[in-house]
């Protein structure tokens, strides 16, 4: 048996922590250090580590637990209140990047400029690059907002809600484009599955909540069985979302967290899941993003396209989501926060890109620019979030943080 994975884990945990502390000293979120650790350790720089099946599995478990914790920390009443706004923000955050990505690829993806080896028509290829830019990796923003203590703000709730809806809209957009290139994909079936997931989550949520709430009320405080059952529920929801409904497993984990959040043991469970996430799973997940990066050789035209792709990726999300937030009567500083919080593409865009290459929708020459865009947007998001959250009302207890009556009541109890 090969025990090298033990050494891999030790190196990842040590380097992510050291670089996390280093980035914190220069007033940046520690998650940036974890991302840089994976990039430095991976094939893009020193090649000390490479992505393995074990690291991939642990990383997937890490993002599931991260989103489960985010669900437990979310006020479901506040999330429901921002549901309409989240949909508008997500819709604008999909349409604007889609248009920007299509326009940029339309200028470059043509004979005599950049020769693509993809089998699909140029129109579908250009649309697909726009589809890649619609993705949002909420896990990066969630970790940063948790670190800043801003996950429970109105902006944080809007980012969470919009990112979940963005994921659904991204699946629909991807399905429409892939169905044009692959006749075996049915748009109607995919839409029915997505609708089915929300019905499934609602029914399971009611049943599990009532049973769990009743059981918790009569159980002793702090029993470990609560943690195990909550984790089992998280994993089952994640599996069902991905396997039966074609929805991202992190969406299932987030809804599982929302359901558990309403039980009286939520705070107890949250502390224990935060520990395992901080100790092992989150560092491996963030480092794994950097380990995925393998940069191919690129000529000057591809380099220019890469730079413009990063700019378009950042600007279109800020404009699109910020405009959507403005329509929903958010204040200017909140619009900026929401726009910045949706920038990160992370592993979501890489998954979409790999799917496109398999179906002949993305030429291999464009994979390098996509990887560069993913890495830079993933790193720049936590940095910009920290900067942008410094701006706004300078109050001892921000009104935004006490937006719901739940938090107001909690504050009164503590005083």
TrEMBL record:
Top-level lineage group: Bacteria
Membrane topology term: Multi-pass membrane protein
Swiss-Prot/TrEMBL keywords: Antiport, Ion transport, Membrane, Sodium, Sodium transport, Transmembrane, Transmembrane helix, Transport
Pfam families: Na_H_Exchanger
Main location: membrane
InterPro entries the UniProt entry points to: Cation/H_exchanger_TM (IPR006153), Na+/solute_symporter_sf (IPR038770)
Sequence intervals crossing the membrane: 6-24, 31-49, 55-73, 85-107, 127-145, 157-181, 187-211, 223-239, 245-263, 275-295, 301-325, 370-389
Keyword Oxidoreductase among record annotations: no
Subcellular location per the Swiss-Prot or TrEMBL entry: Membrane
Domain Cation/H+ exchanger transmembrane: start-end pairs: 13-390
Record has Ion transport as a keyword: yes
Family assignment from sequence similarity: Belongs to the monovalent cation:proton antiporter 2 (CPA2) transporter (TC 2.A.37) family.
Name under which the protein is recorded: Sodium:proton antiporter
Organism: Claveliimonas bilis
């Amino acid at each position: 048996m090969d025990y090298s994975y033990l050494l891999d884990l030790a190196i990842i945990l040590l380097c992510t922590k050291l670089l996390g502390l280093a980035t914190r000293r220069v007033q940046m979120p520690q998650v940036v250090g974890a991302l840089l650790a994976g990039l430095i350790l991976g094939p893009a720089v020193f090649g000390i580590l490479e992505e393995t099946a074990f690291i991939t599995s642990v990383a997937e478990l890490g993002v599931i637990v991260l989103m489960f914790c985010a669900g437990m920390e979310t006020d479901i009443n506040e999330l429901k209140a921002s549901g309409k706004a989240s949909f508008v923000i997500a819709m604008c955050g999909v349409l604007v990047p889609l248009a920007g990505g299509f326009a940029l690829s339309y200028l470059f993806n043509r004979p005599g400029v950049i020769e693509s080896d993809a089998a699909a028509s140029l129109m579908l290829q250009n649309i697909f690059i726009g589809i890649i830019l619609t993705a949002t990796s909420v896990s990066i923003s969630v970790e940063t907002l948790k670190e800043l203590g801003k996950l429970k703000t109105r902006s944080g709730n809007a980012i969470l809600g919009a990112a979940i809806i963005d994921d659904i809209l991204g699946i629909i957009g991807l399905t429409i484009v892939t169905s044009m290139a692959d006749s075996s994909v049915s748009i109607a079936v995919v839409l029915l599955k997505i609708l089915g997931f929300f019905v499934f989550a609602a029914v399971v949520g009611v049943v599990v909540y009532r049973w769990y709430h009743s059981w918790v009320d009569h159980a002793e405080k702090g029993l470990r069985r609560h943690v195990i059952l909550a984790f089992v529920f998280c994993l089952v929801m994640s599996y069902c979302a991905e396997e039966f409904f074609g929805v991202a497993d992190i969406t299932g984990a987030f809804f599982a967290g929302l359901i558990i959040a309403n039980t009286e043991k939520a705070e107890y469970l949250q502390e224990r899941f935060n520990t395992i996430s901080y100790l092992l799973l989150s560092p491996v997940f963030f480092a794994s993003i950097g380990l995925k990066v393998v940069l191919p050789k690129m000529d000057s035209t591809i380099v220019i396209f890469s730079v413009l792709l990063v700019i378009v990726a950042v600007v279109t999300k800020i404009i699109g989501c910020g405009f959507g937030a403005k329509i929903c009567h958010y204040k200017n500083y909140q619009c900026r926060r929401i726009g910045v919080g949706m920038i990160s593409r992370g592993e979501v865009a890489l998954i979409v890109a790999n799917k496109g290459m398999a179906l002949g929708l993305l030429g291999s020459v464009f994979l390098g620019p996509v990887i560069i865009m993913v890495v830079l947007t993933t790193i720049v998001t936590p940095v910009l979030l920290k900067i942008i959250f410094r701006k706004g009302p300078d109050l001892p207890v921000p009104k935004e943080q006490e937006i719901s009556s739940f938090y107001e009541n909690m504050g009164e109890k503590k005083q």
